[in-house]
Amino acid sequence: LFPPTQEIVSGESEEENNGVNLMEFSDEILLHILSYVPCTDLVLNVRRTCRKLATLCLDKSLTHTVLLQKDYKVNKDKVKQLMRDIGKEIYQLNMAGCYWLPSSSIDHITRCKNLVKLNLSGCHITSLHLSKTLSTLQQLRSLAIDVNPGFDASQLSSECKATLSRVLELKQTLYTPSYGVVPCCTSLEKLLLYFEILDHSREGFMLSGQLMVGESNVPHYQNLRVFYARLAPGYVNQEVVRLYLAVLSDRTPENLHAFLISAPGSFAETGATKNLLDSMARNVRLDALQLPKAWINGSGLLQHLKFNNPFYFSFSRCTLSGGQLMQRVMNGGKDLKSLTSLNLSGCIHCLAPESLFRKAEDDIDSSILESLVVSCCNLRHLNLSAAHHHSSKNIGNHLCQLLARLKHLLSLALPVCSITDVAANMEKPPMQSNVMPQTLGKKVRIGIQTYSNQKPHSSVFWTLMGSLPFLENLEIIGSSFSSAMPRNEPAIRNSLPPCIRAQSVGDAEVAAIGQVTYLQSLTLAQLPNILTGSGLVSIGLQCQHLRTLSLANLGMMGNVVYMSALMDMLKHCKCLRDLRLEQPYFSAGAQFFQALSHCSSLQRLCIVSRSGTLQSDAVMSFMANCLEVIMCHMFMGESLTVCKNLQQSLVRSFQADRPALNVVIFPLLHEDLTEVIRDVPMRHLDEITLFKSRVAEEPPNLWW
């Protein structure tokens, strides 16, 4: 706000007659302004500028909750000084994802005697450090930690276990088979478990899901209200989560109101899990539900489960038909105004009356969607991706027209084929995939004049975008799209062709997104009819709040046809923090990085490109100019030598000034890619490096 060497006293300004003096604002206004400044800057810098700010920066409203989880400039010395200055005033401390801080930094938390909530997910912490820290935090009620190989619960002191016995909320990320601290938390009401255990060690040995010696203590679930488990791919994760569920199957907590298990692939139901679900059907009324698809498909479970005031449902990848969904879950369209988040990703028949004789590409039944929209009128988050939701040609029944009634939507995920304007395209011949668009053979000037190929503002998708004033997160993803870089597997060399209905979706639809003024996150994947990318410029100009942008496989695969438009767009994205690009044959050269340098707020960059190329000196220059960038992941077609040399140069040049810097430059098709991926901090891997749909992935406000 002011140079630290210049003392400014309230009411004094050499130019107070020519402008507004910030110090003349009321304390309430100044406190609101200061709430946007990172706490480390407030305490260590801003409060030293003048006497008034020295007082305001220590106001309880600013020191009560300290968020360091994305303060990438914080280092161990700043943490030490921060805890020394305001440790006693901190009641909530979030250090999630501070992977660059040494474990010794955790020791300074012992100064926070009044701490009630503590998030250490993604931090380096040993059993002994955890024991020392928790022993002094007698007021702690909410805790998030990682359990890494080598964790030993026997090293926890009696004082630490006493603190854990009072903890009501626990979030635990497991990288090794273990109960972690769960058996010590005898008063748990909320338990969140993230299973990230790999099936193989670095040496190639198969791992077992059996718990470590000394892990015979069982969890205490009698007070549990929320149980959530998210599994990464792998059989070991499934084995370990079954051990956690075994205790639940013996006695279901009476107050359980949210039961959620997110498991990729096949996770078979067992006798124990069946007993658990039967017990839940008899004894509890749920507000939130998510189950593995194998537990729902073909069973009558949903007929027997009882719901109170549900706010979250996820039936991702289930084969429920629309008829079953409405009858068994939606209660015939009654009493669902409480539902705020619904995930139907991969539910290929969820908008059809029945699934027995239906093909996935058949038209949807608009009456089912209309019933859903009417009964769930307060939806904030809706995911319909990874399915073919084809609207019929009947006027007024298009999916986009029906969704336009959901005025409160904050996030929305749709398949590309669902936004096709069927009526408008009926007289147009389908685009031939083997015909090269004429615009590819000549340079196209990006600007207002390039919008000549856009559809009129009366298109159904244009109307939808104009009807959602509060939308913050939008995903338009091809129903057959799969990323070239899946989790724990070799890179995918071939991709499936886009849906036929998606062939007409291109620049005009992208331009329509520019109407969403407050858009913060945008994902576009597998839009085959992108000819110039002109719609991207519209988004860059009009969506000034955009923070996250993910583009994948736009236009024809053999040529990055939207490069000029992308570079023009980036010049306007002053708030962009995360950029992910996945496109074959992408050339990350000097012009691209020069345009990207206009994104002054950029923090994380990920490029995935089969047969893609990069220019090392351009990358170095970009990193030197963009001082906020702390993550650079590039998986291209370059040789291992080129990649290693560039990665070493980046680390050597910038690591000292950017403690959080994480650089991975590696050939996409190299056999050791999975070994490289396992070393990426989970924060980056989960939020940007790996492609996935994130709309309604978890219940809203699952963790603070």
Automatic annotation (TrEMBL):
InterPro entries: F-box-like_dom_sf, F-box_dom, FBXL18_F-box, FBXL18_LRR, Leu-rich_rpt, LRR_dom_sf. Signal peptide: none annotated. Residues 19-66 form the F-box domain. SUPFAM superfamilies: F-box domain, RNI-like. Pfam families: F-box-like, LRR_FBXL18. GO terms for biological process: SCF-dependent proteasomal ubiquitin-dependent protein catabolic process. GO terms for cellular component: SCF ubiquitin ligase complex. This is FXL18 protein.
